């Protein structure tokens, strides 16, 4: 199983529950028709979005899609060209950053190298109306929250990357903002530490109840962390939903292709009745039974999309619909799973991902190079996309 698939399958339980809860509550943040133009260039285009209190909401998209610009408008560092931003029912659009109940954690962490960890965290409280004792208490509380109690006297260069990230988080949370904006919070960490820190971030968010909006280009990170996420492209929101929603029910070719890997095939609707739709797929040389979507008519051209891990490989022809013959053109063994490239008689090559659940020797694989095999997939795994 690919990593995004695992994120959707394993971690989605939390986001799904959170998103169901979120849907019932009044919105904490309301972004209404926000557009940002720099000269003639539109960086953010007519974005409307509602985020609930206590959510971890991610803005996910490729470089230049406008996610940082949207975050900066929430913080007040950038004025929208059009539209309004409400936080906790209050119109924030014309307020300067320091009058908003918002704090931002920057990608670089921006820690002061000459200051100790404690002083870096205390710096976040510089403009707060507090006594010295209250400030000391708050710093201690924040360091305990991020599990750095014993590191207060060190300088940033005397701690690890992951610990620096936690200092930045402690500093950003010290003012107890209602909303914390995090710009690529884990980008500076290596893969292992990033995975570990994702769970820490979720834990800290739960303890403080602060609403987090995270900007990331890392789909796995967005899927693991978020109660819901918005996939952005060219300044627009393409889809909003839980990790499971966007992975299992992509609404467009863009979202399907952006999150995880997927096989796209051209198809024509043959019959659309009830819960399934049959489509003719020339590259399969036959028909496929797929999950129905509304509004299809026979003869309509459509895209069929199937995730590589939803296709089963077998040596003998399985029973049921959606079974096709092919040949193993290539295979890559990754330890936990293998990626097969299966060539159909039409010449089309499909990606198939197979989990290596058993400890197998070389000659015990499901299939080997040049083997004749059968592909099978459930109608529910066959996604139809209109655009
Ligand atoms: P990345 O992941 O690369 O940071 P992003 O999605 O955060 O990308 P933004 O920083 O929001 O992207 O930028 C969106 C678009 O707006 C980009 O094409 C960028 O060049 C442009 N842009 C951002 N700030 C300005 C500015 N001050 N003046 C002109 N264009 C800008």
Features:
10 helices, 6-stranded mixed beta sheet, 5-stranded antiparallel beta sheet, alpha+beta, 26% helix, 387 residues, 20 strands, single chain, binds adenosine-5'-triphosphate
SSE arrangement:
Layout (H helix, E strand, L loop, with lengths): L2 H9 L1 H12 L4 E10 L2 E11 L4 E6 L5 H9 L6 E6 L2 E2 L10 E4 L11 H7 L8 H14 L15 H14 L4 E5 L7 H18 L2 E6 L2 H7 L2 E6 L2 E6 L1 H6 L4 H6 L4 E11 L2 E6 L4 E6 L9 E6 L5 E3 L8 E11 L3 E7 L5 E7 L16 E5 L6 E3 L2
Parallel strand pairs: 3-8, 3-9, 6-7, 7-8
Antiparallel strand pairs: 1-2, 1-4, 4-5, 9-10, 11-12, 11-14, 12-13, 14-20, 15-19, 16-17, 16-19, 17-18
The structure holds adenosine-5'-triphosphate.
Short description:
The protein is of the alpha+beta class. It has helices at 3-11, 13-24, 67-75, 117-123, 132-145, 161-174, 191-208, 219-225, 243-248, 253-258; strands at 29-38, 41-51, 56-61, 82-87, 90-91, 102-105, 179-183, 211-216, 228-233, 236-241, 263-273, 276-281, 286-291, 301-306, 312-314, 323-333, 337-343, 349-355, 372-376, 383-385.
Give your account of this protein's structure:
By secondary structure, the chain is of the alpha+beta class. Helices cover 26% and strands 33% of the residues. It contains 10 helices and 20 strands. It has helices at 3-11, 13-24, 67-75, 117-123, 132-145, 161-174, 191-208, 219-225, 243-248, 253-258, and strands spanning 29-38, 41-51, 56-61, 82-87, 90-91, 102-105, 179-183, 211-216, 228-233, 236-241, 263-273, 276-281, 286-291, 301-306, 312-314, 323-333, 337-343, 349-355, 372-376, 383-385. A 6-stranded mixed β-sheet has the order 6-7-8-3-9-10, sandwiched between helices. A 5-stranded antiparallel β-sheet has the order 13-12-11-14-20, with no helix packed on it. Helix 1 (3-11) packs parallel to helix 8. Adenosine-5'-triphosphate binds at residues 38, 41, 43, 61, 63-69, 217.
